[in-house]
Amino acid sequence: MLKSIGAEVSLFIDPNRESIEKSKYLGATSVELHTGQYAIDYELGNHEDEYNKLVNAANLANSLALKVNAGHGLNYDNLVQILKLPHLNELNIGHAIIAESVFIGLDDAIRKRFEGDLGAINLNQFKQKLIDEIKNRRLAHRKETATETE
Q: Domain segments of the chain: what residues?
């Protein structure tokens, strides 16, 4: 029903074959892979198996022409590897940033997250890098989808 009026339908799912295939069957246009178990395992120092599940899930979802989003339990420490997930369209880490911003302010919370990876940058530079990355990922996804339908 939502898809018939042009709304994108995204389902928040566990990163496994059954959930991805059901999402496609139900008419979703995207999935958000649940990264909660990865986050828990990261804290325990044993997250590679969960990360590999996420990689496999992202590849499968993309092969079914589903946009790949991810999120839950992500924070400043466990995010770096998640950013390397293939086909990642959107990442939800808002809770960690907003929680930190209560103590240090939003600009500094965002800056704190990205200084380690990108060097000290101002917020405008960060926003532009983020916008550019999103545009590049969306363009790449459109190209992949167009090639699959030809």
A: 3-149
